[in-house]
Amino acid sequence: MKILALDLGKFNTMCCFFDTKTRKSRFLTTPTERQHIASVLKNAKVDLVVMEACGPSGWINDLAQSLDHATLVCSTNEEAWQWAKVKRKTDKDDALKLARLAAMRELKPVHMPSQTHREFRSLVKYRKTLDRRINKTKNTIRAWFVNQGITIDSGDKAWHTGREHINSFRKPIQDCGPDELWKGELDIELTILDSLTQQIDTVVKKLEAIGKTEPRIVRLMTIPGVGPRTAEILVACLDDPHRFETSRQVSAYFGLVPRQYQSGETDRNGRITKRGNPLARTILVECAWASLRYNPWAKGVYERICGKQKTRKKKAGIALARKIAVISWAMLRDEKDWEPKRMIEVTESYGRMSPALKETLQTMKPKENADQRKSRLRKEAREARAAADHRASETDRKSSKTSTISKSRSTKQVTTRRKTTKTTATRSSHAASKPRRAGKLVRVTDAMTSA
Questions:
Q1: Cβ–Cβ contacts within 10 Å for residue 418, how many?
Q2: For the chain, does the N or the C end have fewer beta carbons within 10 angstroms?
Q3: Based on the domain organization, do 87 and 158 belong to the same domain?
Q4: How many CA within 13 A on the CB side of residue 159?
Q5: Domain ends where: 332, 351, 367?
Q6: Is 408 strand, coil or helix?
Q7: How much is the pTM?
């Protein structure tokens, strides 16, 4: 078996061609550039290309696989790389050791994501880098105001409503006198802060656009308490969920398992190992504390582990972070969204669940993302407008009906008055005509009597 071991460097790479049968090796130094590495890989007739996991290993691994070479990207955190007591360390020695360890199968391979996923992972990390730069700039500005004895607002208020007060002290550096140079420095830092804020907004918009088209991110966001930033980091770290066989491997990957020291009858567990991606571990712990407000299941798990003891709060938070990581991995593996009823089955398989928590999970509504919430609010607004228009039309109809009835009543009253007046006049005319007829009859009777 012929092995090509690459000891990658920033400028140059040491290539070791090792034959496992003859145990002979030869070396070649080449620049760490795409064209030179491609030339070496094209001319090499080897069975395996071995390299350590580092920055350039991504594109070199893709290049070797495109040339139909079997590759092995090994982790440098294993015991095989603990070479602290060697008497001589050179690039040739490192490349030769890499080839020999590969021949003995003592190297542990690492997962190499695709180029698209590496770019996505890099963008997720870069957003956090911009966030750290913004915080550092804000702390620098606050330090200047403290040194000058000037009070500014605390918290985020200083950078929103209190920004006008801060801007009143800025001044171009070329216009500053000898005793106000800090105002010129403030002007430069505020310019940097505005630029960084604009850039991080652009990065966040790009991540949100990617998240809308990535089903894995959408699936993880169905967990109450898991937002877009947490879902992005989890997807960036886990990548292919099928590369983990058990949940214990996922917990160890994020460094959320305790250290173990076992010798003879001694078996002692310590603090968590903190191996793996520190950004993912940090965001998982933050997500665990936030889940206590939005996720009844997470709150129940926290209270069960904490046991109302102040000394166990942080341990319960770490344990909840590990559970969230494992649940996220299981959801990606099974391609299923968050289901509160499923969490009832899982919790009851380990122990008893309180009736109140069980009822809460049974009646729990599914979580809405931003688009669903906006759609629901628009629907509710349309329904509210339709109800208002219906009430307005009913009111108009009732008012028109009332006006019609009042008009008919007034017309009826006028008609009745007219009829009453006419009847009265008729009766008056009849009453006035009756005495004349009576007098005529009297006169006729008198005439007849006299005759």
A1: 10
A2: C
A3: no
A4: 13
A5: 367
A6: helix
A7: 0.75
Residue 163's SS3 state is: helix
* Beta strands at 258-263 and 266-272: parallel, antiparallel or unpaired: antiparallel
Q: In this structure, is the dihedral angle defined by the CA atoms of residues 79, 80, 86 and 90, taken in order, positive or negative?
A: negative
Q: Is residue 438 part of a domain?
A: no
- Residues whose CB falls within 8 Å of the CB of residue 370, separated by 6 or more in sequence, listed in order: none
**Do 239 and 350 belong together in one domain?**
yes
Q: CA quadruple 288, 335, 345, 269: dihedral positive or negative? A: negative
Q: Is 235 helix (H, G, I), strand (E, B) or coil?
A: helix
* Confidence at residue 123, expressed as pLDDT on a 0 to 100 scale: 95
Contact 220, 328 (CB under 8 A): yes
Q: Is the dihedral of CA 271, 275, 277, 278 positive or negative?
A: positive
Exposure of 327 by Cβ count < 10 A (0-12 exposed, 13-18 middle, 19+ buried)? buried
DSSP assigned state of 109: B
Q: What residue ranges of the chain have pLDDT lower than 70?
A: 79-85, 350-351, 366, 368-372, 405-451
Domain that includes residue 59, residue range: 2-103
How far apart are the two ends of the chain, measured CA to CA in Å?
172
Amino acid at 335: E
CB 321 within 8 A of CB 295: no
Residues near 36 by beta carbon (within 8 Å), at least 6 away in sequence: 30
Q: Tokens representing 103?
A: 């021949």
Residues 7 and 91 in one domain: yes
Residues 6+ apart with CB under 8 A from 412: none
| Cβ-proximal residues to 416 (8 Å cutoff; 6+ apart), any chain | none
Both tokens assigned to 323:
């559970």
Cα separations in angstroms, 193 against 32, 161, 201, 417: 36, 16, 12, 86
The strands making up 2-7's β-sheet, listed across from edge to edge, are 24-31, 12-19, 2-7, 48-52, 71-74
Radius of gyration for the alpha carbons in the chain, expressed in angstroms and rounded: 43
According to the model, what pLDDT value does residue 437 have?
Answer: 47
When divided into structural domains, the chain yields a total of 3
- What single-letter amino acid sits at 285? V
Helix (H) or strand (E) run with residue 7 in it: strand 2-7
So what's the pLDDT on residue 429? 56
Contact 158, 145 (CB under 8 A): no
Q: Give the pLDDT confidence score for residue 415 in this predicted structure.
A: 64
Domain boundary at 212, 237, 269, which?
A: 212
- pLDDT (tens digit per residue) in 101-133: 888 888 888 889 999 999 999 999 999 999 999
Q: Each residue of 187-242: pLDDT tens digit?
A: 999 999 999 999 999 999 999 999 989 999 999 998 988 989 999 999 999 999 99
Both 232 and 340 in one domain: the answer is yes
